[in-house]
Amino acid sequence: MIEITGLKGLSNLGVKATRLSTRLPKTVNTIKKNAAAIGVETAIFRTVVDTSKAASNWQISINSPEASNREAFYKGKNNSTGKQSKNTALKFAQFQISTAKPGQKIYIVNSQDYVADYIIPERTPDLLTRPAERMITSIHTQLEFLDVL
To answer: Reduced to 3 states, what is the DSSP secondary structure of residue 62?
Structure first.
């Protein structure tokens, strides 16, 4: 709590408010980056793997929801390379997240049109018809809220 008594107290309040206003964008950016990291990791590791292409295509883009169409990092069949592809996709995503600056939006994108059908919901598969879309929409809503702050 700040007690304001006279002009000196008001001056101190101004100094503290200025300090806070310069730190706030960095703090919000850190929270945004952490939320994006959790979101993309969740998406990657809940993606059912056969050839690894869907898991390899989880990408981070900054300021616009664009993504290229990648081949699987490690091609395989019947989840033979799922772990390697997921770990590599996560490393690429983490790097992109680390480049986000205050005020920039972070998008979690997958260019595979069928990926929404290949996410394993955590607990309630009966309630989620297209779990990837719902999860990503929720993450985008949260990140956009943080951008407003």
So the answer is: strand
